[in-house]
Amino acid sequence: MSALTSVIGFPRIGSNRELKRSIESYWKGTSTLEDMQTTARELRKKHWLLQQGAGVDLIPSNDFSYYDQLLDTSILLGAIPQRYRRLSLDAEDTLFAMGRGYQGERGDVTALPMKKWFTTNYHYLVPEIDDSEEIKLNSTKPFDEFNEAKKLGIITKPVLIGPYTFLKLARRPEGAPLTFDKGLVNAVARVYAQVLTKFAELGATWVQFDEPYLVLDKQDGDLELFKSLYAKILPARDSDNGSVKVLLQTYFGHIADIYETVNLFEFDGVGLDFIEGRNDNLAALKKFGVAQRTTIFAGIVNGRNIWRNDYADSLGVLDAVKQITDRVAVSTGCSLLHVPFSVEGEQGLQPEVRRHFAFAVEKLHEIEEIAALSDLDEAALKDSHELADNQALFDGHRVEADSNVAKRIEALHSSDFTRLPERKERQSEQREELGLPLLPTTTIGSFPQTREIRAERAQFRKHEISEEQYDSFIKQHIDEVLEKQERIGLDVLVHGEFERNDMVEYFGQHLNGFLFTKNAWVQSYGTRCVKPPIVWSDVSRAQPITVAWSAYAQSRTTRLVKGMLTGPVTILNWSWPREDVSHQLQTTQLALAIRDEVLDLEDAGIKVIQIDEAALREKLPLRRSDWHKLYLDWAIPAFRLVHSGVKPTTQIHTHMCYSEFNDIIRDIDAMDADVISFEASRSDLTVLDAIHDAHFETEAGPGVYDIHSPRIPSQEEIEARIDEILDKMEAPSVWINPDCGLKTRGDAETWPSLEHMVAAAHAVRARL
Ligand code: GLN
Ligand code: ZN
């Protein structure tokens, strides 16, 4: 019998984003709750059967979610803040109110804050624990889904976000930190123990607790927290009504600093990531061994890339683990939530290209093949054509290198990474040149993309309309959006980004070196999905990309129009990067391409240029000791390379999303932009303290309202927000803007919201 195989989690959105469509149609009122629930049930069934068909032994359940699995966990534990309970909505609508805010007959509440899930582009809703909440088992979702699969004849492995990760990610109201008092810890442990008891009763064999937070640096009290939780929970795996095995699942890095303790607990399974945490996890296993009762779930099939697995490499890892214990299961490295559904639909890619890819469905087969191969002896392995076929994918060079790109990189000098004169001096020259008022108002770049706009772009792509028709269509939209921005009185205008489907894909399409998929969607938050392009070979710019649109927009107004680019780090982080060359090299290639674009925009008369680094924080390594040497030491210089060639009077902006960047505030200042806008409205405002304490020099626009929610903020609300900002920052360095681009919003909420924002800025300005 070959090794046990396990999948940590499976994408839930559906092969054709059926879940997204169904939920959004329910929100719009064009379908019913029952319709949505039916779609959800069908998808779960399909995904379980798929995994069963592939031969997976431990198939996850409860990895399904209507919005976010951490939000489900909050609800499971009864951590539903009073403001949502007070709306007295039914279960699904309460969930959606927490996820996206609610504005209607029953009240007006903002959504829970949203944050990036570790180093992924998935976003979770931050659990909020207030004193009025009683932590208790509050939902039957995990049990219902287990039973649903059981009826289909599949005994699944229920998956829950573990208590340690839940508590470490939870906050008090207003974003205040949580203290882990005994009462709270016991209450949470009690719920998880109840869950185990219940699953033992229902006939589950394994339950998986996801504890990715264990791969982070430990703070005082963390070890005790972990111990006191699991000391109370684990005894519940055996009860009079049956017993169930517990898999402690970690991912996104190593747990070497707590492995000894974990091992002492004798979990039935410990899931370790041998992709991102390989060396440290192996070293920990060697040092402390593996408890008698424990199976090591070796995470070797990457849940975060789209490339085929290198079997020889994976088998090497399995061998190394087998030297320590013979109880080894083969697993994904993390949930497959972070990869697209299947390569099958990608017939647009050449077969010799496509064979290098493995999405979720293909990864299931890889797990099975690796498990089978791992049982073969050396002689049989030599004869294995599966192994030989796989090896052929990795032999030799996949693509030719571009010698021009290589030469340009070789010629770079340290002065290419430094903009002169110093920022202080530039800022005062810019003030003179640009003539902006105090608290200048602007937006982040995109404006609502209606169905009509998307349809027009699609028609152009399919050559159904001529380039002239398309150009005049986009120009008409630019004219309209400029006119509206002027009318409501914004200071720095944007052209609206109507020509862009997506801030990364658009640039990928205009650069050499990228490939695109038709249907490779990945969930980003709620029903939002992204379709990252693929870096396939060396990157360079063929010709100007955005210059004509920005120049056109600037020619239509006497106000300043901001040029709009995506930065190199974000392009890489929101693409599928190559694995045959370093991220640093790919980012530098991108930086040179975008640098050319910046200089061309400047030549075309654009005086303000925004280079979005929305995803800069995303790939910051989880362990602090890796931050600089593995990432910031090249990511920050790459950004500087993009803009170091402009005149002192050209104002360089950047923008970041959902960033918790308190701890890298100095590195962000060192990007040497003149202005930064960032998300702040939906996370706590502690970043303002950080700006204050760090003597941040970049002028900054902390978002004054949340664009991820359809609700319209009032003028008073925004004024109050601006006052909060002015408590911490000097007025001359403050900008007023929403927290992100408006592309996913409708006109109905966008324009009143912006009017309130401008009115609020004017009102505060008058009092200064
Ligand atoms: N300029 C982009 C926009 O406005 C930025 C989007 C983002 O930060 N995610 O859409
Ligand atoms: Zn943003």
Automatic annotation (TrEMBL):
This is 5-methyltetrahydropteroyltriglutamate--homocysteine methyltransferase. One of its GO terms (molecular function) is zinc ion binding. Pathway: Amino-acid biosynthesis; L-methionine biosynthesis via de novo pathway; L-methionine from L-homocysteine (MetE route): step 1/1. Keywords: Amino-acid biosynthesis, Metal-binding, Methionine biosynthesis, Methyltransferase, Repeat, Transferase, Zinc. Zn(2+) 1 binds at residues 655, 657, 679, 740. Belongs to the vitamin-B12 independent methionine synthase family. It comes from the Bacteria. Residues 5-324 form the Cobalamin-independent methionine synthase MetE N-terminal domain. Its cofactor is Zn(2+). The gene is metE. L-methionine binds at residues 444-446, 497, 612. L-homocysteine binds at residues 444-446, 497, 612. Zn(2+) binds at residues 655, 657, 679, 740. It catalyses: 5-methyltetrahydropteroyltri-L-glutamate + L-homocysteine = tetrahydropteroyltri-L-glutamate + L-methionine. It comes from Bifidobacterium aquikefiricola. Its EC number is 2.1.1.14.
